[in-house]
Protein: SAF domain-containing protein
Organism: Gilliamella apicola
Amino acid sequence: MKDKKLIVLYLAMIVVGLALLFTKSAPPPVEQKEERIVAEPPKKEEPKTEIINVAVAKHDINKKTILTKDDYYFKSIEVAINKERPKFITETAGIDAYVVKNNIAKDTVIEESLIASPNSEDYILLALKEGNFMFPFAIDPIDSYLMKNLKSGDLIDLYLFYGDETERNDRESKLVSPSRDFAKNRLKPIIVGKKVLYFDVGEEDLDKGYNKNKTAQVQLELSNQEIKVLRSLMTNSTIIMYPSTFKKNVENGLRLLSDKEKNWPLSEKDIFSGTRINTLKGN
């Protein structure tokens, strides 16, 4: 009897176990999070070229030419980025009064290596024409306006400031510079159309105060003959410098001008003879 009870108990346990096995609930499904794939924006390709404005020769430019705005123009060109390239002129006022080192053909892009800046050693050597010399001309304080209005490559004219006087005990008239009588003072052009190489004193020095203790100078390009005449006159006469009335450099600046200068009356007496203009008459 006891064994039967045990068998029934075992059977009941088996039935309960099977029932529990089939009735056990399945585990809740695990929620899978959706991974959002963020697409990276396409990388912008950096431009490999850029557009710049450069100076270009308007016409064939000869060596030793001092540049003006009539010699070049600006145009846009496309150049490579991050690559070694020539140093172009990109500023509109970058090359005025510069001198050309070598011949430049028309429509050629002007590079820094082809020109020399004023006051540079190359400029001084190139700007001088063969046979000419640099001559320093002192600028009086009252004439400092020239330094603020003229630049390298501009032209100037040199005048003799003189008068025709007759002393009481001397019947002959004499030329003196300047005359003691203002009404008798005259201007006579002696050297015209000469090129300014450079000024020795810059704008910064002028702003600090320009006085007689600080002598400013302009370096002129003169021939040997012109220097002889000018240096001789400077020993006992007054020479005045004015901006030139000429548009181009005058090779022989000693030739006397015709009576076009009417700002001051000109004496009928020549300072130089007609055949040997480098000889003073002395009358």
